[in-house]
Amino acid sequence: MPTLESLQVALQHVLPQHLLSRLVRRLTRLEHAGLVPHAIRRFMRHYPVDLDEALETDCTRYASFNHFFTRELRGGCRPMPEDARAVACPCDGRMSELGPIVDDVLLQAKGRRYGLPALLAGDTGLARRFHGGEFATIYLAPHDYHRVHSPLAGRVLRATYVPGALFSVNDRTTRHVENLFARNERVIVVMETALGQVCVILVGAMLVGFIELVCADLPAQVDGARQPVPLALGAKRDLERGEELGRFNMGSTVILLFERGRVRWRKDIEAGSLLRLGEVLAEPV
Which of 35, 73, 128, 239 is a plausible cystine mate for 243, CB 3.0–4.6 Å? Predict the structure, then answer.
């Protein structure tokens, strides 16, 4: 017999995911001196947002809800690791899964896996590069800081926009939606670093299907589009560790891929660990 959880997930298969996301995009960008602070206060009553860490601590000074959601942190509150070789956590969030990429398969949730080539939109050459490597999946909750930063100093080699579905990303959907991260809309960024090539994948979700990059502009969403779109890179291709790479206009998931034999995860990090931007995520082998 279907559970309430499975029925909730099944409903997402029939909802107009992109239409709902576009509607939320429009609403969160409305500027209204009375409604915006009210909406922010209601959100903060429901979620544990810490505005003391934000550059702007006064909720009445945000022009729109999206301005609040993509808020900038004040300088110095997320220092990078002292070890210049260490991999820094690229965002605030919770570790969903991490570990080795075995037989080109990644762990989505307990008992559910998905393929590396599918995650990389069928790019078999890129998949071969990360064969036998390491992966980490970090979930950003609604209250988290929603900018994504470079885990290492490096140069962006390429970026690809992959259109797709917009299922919600949470514990329910990771348990019930097959190939969730390989089905949802995402942006794949490949960087050259001192630890070889690193892949940073920003995965969209329902009401979160809007991702921005500092190195490239994304195309407008087209319902039903399925072909990956290589992005034209701008002048901002070289990034220091901790420099902003992109942002979610609502929260979702970041997936990191490392080549084989390059990194060793911090021993105390496991699935479920809470993470903060800038803390040591891994060390070079």
Answer: 239
Are 174 and 211 members of one domain?
yes
Q: Tens digit of pLDDT for each residue in 198-253?
A: 999 999 886 655 788 999 998 876 566 678 999 999 989 999 999 999 998 766 89
Cα separation, 115 vs 216, in Å, equals 27
How many other C-beta atoms lie within 10 A of the C-beta of residue 104? 18
Q: Count Cα atoms within 13 angstroms, Cβ side, for 218.
A: 24
Instruction: Give the span between the Cα atoms of 226 and 222, in whole angstroms.
Output: 9
| Residue 101 CB-density burial (10 A; 0-12 exposed, 13-18 middle, 19+ buried) | buried
Q: Catalytic residue positions?
A: 92, 149, 252
Residue reference for tokens 């989505």: 108
Cα 245 from chain centre: 11
* 106 vs 97: CA distance, rounded Å: 9
CA 231, CA 234: separation in Å to the nearest integer? 9
User: From CA 142, how far away is CA 119, in angstroms rounded?
Assistant: 24
Are 60 and 92 part of one and the same domain? no
Please tell me the distance from the alpha carbon of residue 29 to that of residue 24, in angstroms, as a whole number.
9
Residue with token string 């080699």 = 157
Is residue 127 a contact partner of residue 117, using CB atoms and an 8 Å limit?
yes
Output the pTM of the full model.
0.90
Tell me how far apart the alpha carbons of residues 120 and 5 are, in angstroms, rounded to a whole number: 29
Judge if 120 and 148 occupy the same domain: yes
Tens-digit pLDDT profile for residues 119-159? 999 999 999 999 999 999 999 988 899 999 999 999 999 99
Helix (H) or strand (E) holding 79: none
